[in-house]
Amino acid sequence: MTKRVIVMNFEVESQAYQGFSELKKLAAEGQIKGEQMAVVTHSNDGQHKFKVEDFIDFTGSNKTSTGGLIGMLVGILVGPLTMLLGWVGGSMIGATQDAKEIKNARNIFEFLVSDIAEGQTGLILIAEEEDNRPINEVIINQLRGGISRFDYDEVEAEIKKAQQVETDTRNNAKKAWQKQHDESQENGNDADPTVKD
Q1: How much of the chain, in percent, has pLDDT values that exceed 90?
Q2: Which terminus of the chain is less hemmed in, N or C, by CB atoms within 10 Å?
């Protein structure tokens, strides 16, 4: 069996919830071996925020939507990296020395931003698949949705890279801010901005 991250998109929000319900039934019947599944929405307010609307942990370990791979994946999508790298705008805004890592890490994130488009609701399922027909039957044939499958280990590696890039970017920004502040003080531009005329 191959462990996958399976992303499903739909034309209508209610179809995502129906898919969520139907896939829970498949898991209960033993037709799929699910680990986690979430209904995810992409906001339609120009902020490009992703939110977990419903969640199930099939393993019984009682993880919340913030625990595990789905939570980390959505965490990257709602973080500053999404805007900073232009994943929502189609172009990279800033230059970085970590460009190779970023290029590799963009695949799943860019896909999710475009495939679960603004205002849409989709599903993310982590499951081991021996046969893809049960999920395809429900999502494609019955609900007319779309499915994309990603290797779990590759997605996990991309998330780790993105988290490292976020950490490095945050640290570099702090250093640059402190350097600008120190230079400003050295040049005598350390006037108190709260002083009134």
Answers
A1: 36
A2: C
